[in-house]
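Morning F.,

Quick status update on the modeling queue. The single chain you submitted on Monday has been processed. Sequence for confirmation:
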Amino acid sequence: MSDPTDRATTGTPDRHVERRRAFHRRPEPGWCEFLTTSRLVEELESIGVDGLHVGREALPGEARMAVPDAAELETWFERARESGAREDVLAATEGGHTGVVAVLDRGEGPHVALRVDIDGLPVEESADGSHRPASEGFRSGHEGWMHACGHDAHMAIGLGVLEAVKASDFEGRFTVLFQPAEEVGGGGKPMAESEHVEGVDYLLAVHLGLDHPSGEVVGGTIEQLAVSNLRVGFRGRSAHAGKEPNEGANAMQATATAVTNAHGIPRHADGATRVNFGRAEVGTAANVIAEEATLWGEVRGETTELMEYTREELRRIVRAAGEMHGCESSFEVVSGAPRADSDGALAELVAGVAGDDDRVDSAVRLDAFGASEDATHLVRAVQEGGGLATYAIVGTDHPGAHHTPTFDVEESDLALAVDVLAGSVLRVAAERPTRGDRGRDDDRRTNDDREGVTGG
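Structure tokens below.
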């Protein structure tokens, strides 16, 4: 990696930990992971791969969602250059075309892929001495941004699995997809539409933690919520709030009406739904009728159809709120992800590998996810192409919840994650499971199969 000051300060020989800490110190937003992509390229070149696809070669740029504006992209691009990002990588990623795909070709055999995410979050990391990244010198150096969901560790795991598979007797094709922009739901769709996912027989995606402790591994997840991320706008007419309020068309009132009525969308008999507005920019002064408003929100559903039902109800509410207060309204779907569940046969294989490891106390075949993740685009793409896919979880103890200033991971779990995933890749190639191995074609959609397999 380019900047020696970004190395872990503890002098640990554990390459997984060193990599994780280096990535932790330089988090970047979705589609702005210029320095991150450069560092991944350096690591991958050091490992040695048969195919390396960077930026525009990693995924189709026209399919990207939730891309920041040009000014934000340029700010992070120049910051990456100042931090030592390679010029060839900058040229390949300029304009928000981040991400990397690495390929090992090992003769005849199945095509197995591993997907990991690479972006950070707009969270100010804790500087308290009890927070290990602060006390041990690898706290985020990008103020206001943090790897608060473990993507730094995911990248280290992806690199470690690639090394392990390369050193093994694996036969087939192994692809690691380092996907940008997961936190904004913008990178999964273009990665799923890339040539690198075509013909994948088995897909593994992974996440650390998610309320699962160290020593627990979940082979696959079900009940992921479909999600749409939205931007809503109101344009009214300004006026003096004291002298002639009747001359205005109040975007603030339209905003309040839309936000309040959103929570009145009827729940649905077919399953759970969610709706939330989490951010708004509206108005300029206390004595001015607000002319413009922009809101950011989301809808979720237990199925893709339930999410779409909630989204269309919200669209109707926004339109009505604008009409009620004499404002023009806009409703934009910025990004999103569908519902997709893990295939039981592949989840069972991962849980079986984990259950053979003495470090694992509990290996669970399938468990509910209950949130959203744009890896579902890749899961569905592989399943629709006739392959199997699973979204696995490697538990880790962490002092702060995901997306909070004190989030951290138990770093000894990185090696476990590498071993379980690399072992799963090898077992997949040897056993080649099929969807019918558990006897039910709808296995990945069931809720009654959350049995545990006790580890050593």
